[in-house]
Amino acid sequence: MAITSFGYLHGPQPDARACYDLRHQFRDPHLRPELRYLTARDAPVREAVMATDGVLALVHAIAATVDAYLAGPRQDEPLTVALGCAGGRHRSATVADALAAILSGDTETAAAHLVADLAERYKERGLAVDLHHRDLDKDVVDRCDHPAPHHQEEKPGDHRARAHRPRP
Fold it and tell me: Which of 34, 74, 112, 146 has a 20 to 30 Å separation from 121 between CA atoms?
């Protein structure tokens, strides 16, 4: 199976059987200046994302969804799960890392994402997981004209247009 993280501001979502858009439901670490230039590889980002209300429940739900797909009649077909956020450096990459650790039974990586208990259940399965972070190493997108942190992010079409509009 494959897991891909990506940022909508860097291009369209990749082809996947299941795609999860994390932009509107979960806090964006980009809006915190101390986290903006860090990535999912950095503990403060992982901690902020995984501590966000609803993220752990989502990770558990996606793992259960993968189980259902893999148990279905087309279980021999490739399964790709894509996770997207605005820039692909924080939310989607962190959740993708957590999900890959769970499904592959990597309890050490899972522990850094607060999901070691769930990874333990998958350890015996030995599922091969191909993890790809499409946009993790790309430059931070300048979003200084976006709403303040206490506002919701804009709709996908508006978000992209503003991110690339020259400043007056």
Answer: 74
User: Which amino acid is residue 49, in one-letter code?
Assistant: V
Q: Which two tokens stand for residue 35?
A: 């986290």
Residue 161 has pLDDT above 50, yes or no: no
Place of tokens 């901690």: 47
**Residue matched to tokens 């430059």:** 139
Query: Which burial class, exposed, middle or buried, applies to 135 when counting CB atoms under 10 A from its CB (0-12, 13-18, 19+)?
Result: buried
Spatial separation of the C-alpha atoms in residues 57 and 153, rounded to whole Å: 21
Do residues 86 and 7 lie in contact, with contact meaning Cβ atoms separated by under 8 Å?
yes
- With a CB cutoff of 8 Å and minimum separation 6, the contacts of 105 are 119, 120, 122, 123, 124, 125, 126, 127
Could you give the CA distance from residue 40 to residue 93 in angstroms, rounded to a whole number? 6
User: Is the model's pLDDT at 4 over the cut of 80?
Assistant: yes
DSSP string, 37-59: T--TTSHHHHHHHHTSTTHHHHH
Max Cα distance, the chain (Å): 57
Strands 2-7 and 80-85: parallel
Q: What 3-state DSSP class applies to 162? A: helix
